[in-house]
Amino acid sequence: MQLFSIFGDPVSHSRSPLMHNAVFKNLNYKACYVRTHLQDGSKLKETFLSLGLSGANVTVPHKEAAFNACDEVRGFAKKVGVVNTIVNENGKLIGYNTDADGFMYAIEEFQTIKNILIIGAGGTAKALASRFLEERVEVAILNRSESRLHYFKELGCRSSSWSDFKVKKYDLVINTTSAGLKDENLPAPQEMIDSILDNAHYAADAIYGKLTPFLQMAKDKNIIYKDGSDMLLGQGVLANELFVKFQLNKNDIKREMQKSFKL
Ligand code: NDP
Q: What is the mean pLDDT of the chain?
């Protein structure tokens, strides 16, 4: 029996155990997926190894720590320095990022996205910004604090903190902060979100399973919006394929994960 886990702080909200266990159980793959509440990201590797894990997902706020914890990082994760999926290969931790492609899958129904605003500058924002730039989409960043903006300026994103932000028109605005996850906070001051949404075509939140104050404002303004559920599904399918070393059919994984959303 293989063991997998999600690491995060908080982690109790995570639907990943439900999704991956549904796949393992219904597709007869001998594995189990649990939650691990981890406060200190620097302890990720030793905790992973002491639990004898075959693989893991990493959520807020440890995705950048996960990058440093890995012995080798592959694909898109290497480019962005952010890891959300780890696979144990003969005692070595191999890191991947499935968030960005998961998000692209989630917004397939949104048409003609040419310029976006990402609110937040953490691990998820890094992955999404780089992925959208690959698609030649213009990316602006708005973050509460100044300190994380350097990375995005280097990437070529117009990057602002709350103190110097000037609103423009956006095809899509995405909340990648954890504001609204365990509280009822907006990701920026209310007047700022108000003017951003007045200039936005679509809105999306990485947070799933609840209508965040940010999405509530989008809804009140009749903007087409979506929460992070499809992103969760997209990143989960890609992570599960890595966990089972591509031994299960992708459509079967997706179907079982989708079913678990109704549990
Ligand atoms: P990080 O910890 O790396 O980054 C958090 C960001 O949120 C920082 O930019 C921080 O700003 C900002 N922030 C935190 N609290 C507030 C607040 N009260 N007001 C304004 N800004 C705030 O987190 P991640 O990028 O890993 O995750 C972000 C969110 O995305 C989480 O809620 C996570 O659950 C969700 N997520 C969902 C996924 C899905 O599949 N649906 C996948 C990935 C993430 P500052 O720099 O000022 O501290």
A: 96
Which atom, in ligand 1's list, is nearest to the CA of 236?
A: 40
The atom of ligand 1 lying closest to the CA of 188 is: 20
Burial grade of 27 (CB within 10 A; 0-12, 13-18, 19 or more): middle
Q: Report the relative pairing of strands 31-37 and 200-205 from DSSP bridges.
A: unpaired
- pLDDT, tens digit, for every residue of 64-81? 999 999 999 999 999 999
Helix axes 16-26, 229-243, angle to 10 degrees: 50
CB 99 near ligand 1, within 6 Å: yes
Q: How far apart are CA 261 and CA 197, in angstroms?
A: 29
Q: Give the Å distance between the CA of 27 and the centre of ligand 1.
A: 33
Quick check: CB of 44 below 6 Å from ligand 1? no
Residue 156 predicted with pLDDT over 90: yes
Is it the case that residue 111 has pLDDT exceeding 90?
A: no
Question: Distance, CA 216 to ligand 1 centroid (Å)?
Answer: 18
What domains can be seen in the chain, in order of their start residue? 2-97+230-260 (3.40.50.10860), 101-227 (3.40.50.720)
pTM of the model: 0.91
Q: How confident is the model over 211-228, as a mean pLDDT? A: 97
| pLDDT at residue 263 tops 90 | no
Quote the distance between the C-alpha of residue 158 and its chain's center: 21
Find all residues with CB under 8 Å of 117, minimum gap 6, and list them: 140, 141, 142, 168, 170, 172, 173, 174, 196, 200
Is 63 considered catalytic here?
Answer: yes
Average of per-residue pLDDT across 89-103: 96
